[in-house]
Design a protein that fits this description.
Blueprint lengths: L1 E5 L4 H9 L5 E5 L9 H9 L5 E4 L8 H4 L1 H22 L3 E6 L22 H14 L4 E6 L2 E2 L6 H11 L2 E5 L3 E2 L2 E2 H17 L8 E4 L6 E2 H9 L8 E5 L19 H7 L6 H15 L4
Parallel strand pairs: 1-2, 1-3, 3-4, 4-5, 5-10, 6-9, 7-12
Antiparallel strand pairs: 8-11
This protein binds NADP nicotinamide-adenine-dinucleotide phosphate (NAP).
The site of NADP nicotinamide-adenine-dinucleotide phosphate (NAP) has 25 residues, from helix 1 and strand 4.
Length: 293
């Protein structure tokens, strides 16, 4: 299995790089090699690649900054995936792309399913939704919507809470915003396991299309922080719950971003691990490796 991966330094990119040996030959393209804003370079990279499948782990992920830089967000999150879809269609290659719960407005009172209507509240969410549409226009396109990604790699909420827990006496964390944490290592394991099916499946196979992929169960930002801090004997912070309205950010986020994993479970037989045990394991890894990675 030969996979061409856009993205080298991000959380999911690094989880793929760590998990691939022995399972797939991964060719990784960093921003220095192919900048997503250069759609001709994106298409040329796929046209000339020795690969069976293309995976896009790169994106403009700075949710707040996207409000001030909508064109940069659109280039990376909408135009680049469209170029990837064109180039993959020209060669008949499956394209696996990552999206977000931020395509939803969070007003539903249950976890979102793939057939629920999107309504993004932010530039980031709108550009990611456009990227989804472009990828899904290719009949061998796969979009995995993920949320609240954590891992031992890079910057993420779990690492930030662990860092702040050692430097502050009190942490005020939003308790009325809900989502499903996603373990980047589990996502990498799933992608590597499903790759053979995507490569061999014919158009129309249920393995293509839109899926929600997270760990099992939803939680609040506050309870996610508590689960991380509980692993650190050196934490000194007390957690205080606050309301989202008391933690304003430039970009609006869904108050309920929980995603229903039923489809990925039905089509692939994927058994999602409960978020709490996966977060505990990642927190232990971050603490063991040093909080400042
Ligand atoms: N993190 C989350 O909580 C979360 C939640 C929902 C969905 N997602 C989605 O999951 C995917 C992976 O996210 P992640 O957490 O792994 O992201 P991340 O850690 O923020 O990494 C983003 C990656 O994209 C690369 N990149 C950004 N702009 C680029 C450009 N113009 N050209 C080439 N590469 C560029 C970055 O490279 P540099 O290091 O050079 O900047 C980096 O490797 C994204 O599609 C994201 O939208 C993430």
């Amino acid at each position: 299995m030969r996979i061409l991966q856009f993205g080298a330094t991000g959380q999911v990119s690094q989880a793929m790089i760590a998990a691939a040996p022995g399972r797939a030959a991964l060719s990784v393209l960093s921003r220095a090699q192919v900048d997503l804003v250069d759609t001709a370079a994106v298409e040329a990279a796929i046209a000339g690649a020795d690969c069976d499948l293309v995976l896009n782990c790169a994106a403009f992920t700075l949710v707040d900054r996207a409000e001030a830089e909508p064109e940069a967000a659109r280039a990376a999150n909408a135009l680049a995936p469209a170029a990837m879809a064109r180039a993959c269609a020209a060669r008949g290659l499956p394209l696996v792309h990552l999206s977000t719960d931020c395509v939803f407005d969070g007003t539903l009172d249950r976890p979102y399913r793939e057939d629920d209507a999107p309504h993004p509240l932010s530039v980031y969410g709108a550009t990611k939704l456009d990227g989804e549409s472009a990828v899904l226009a290719w009949e061998k396109g796969v979009v995995l919507r993920i949320s609240w990604v954590f891992s031992r790699f890079g910057r993420n909420f779990v690492r930030t809470m662990l860092q702040l827990g050692r430097s502050r006496d009190e942490l005020r964390v939003v308790a009325d915003q809900y989502g499903c944490p996603t373990d980047a290592a589990a996502l990498a394991d799933f992608i590597l396991g499903a790759a053979a099916r995507w490569v061999s499946a014919a158009p129309g196979d249920p393995a293509f299309g839109l899926f929600h992929f997270t760990n099992a169960g939803a939680t609040s930002r506050h309870d996610l922080a508590a689960a991380a801090l509980a692993r650190d004997p050196l934490t000194r912070a007390t957690l205080s719950p606050i309301a989202k309205r008391d933690f304003p950010e430039p970009a609006a986020r869904p108050l309920n971003g929980a995603l229903d994993n039923g489809r990925v479970s039905a089509v692939f037989g994927w058994q999602a691990e409960p978020w709490a045990s996966a977060v505990a394991r990642a927190a232990d890894e971050i603490i063991a490796e040093g909080l400042d990675a």
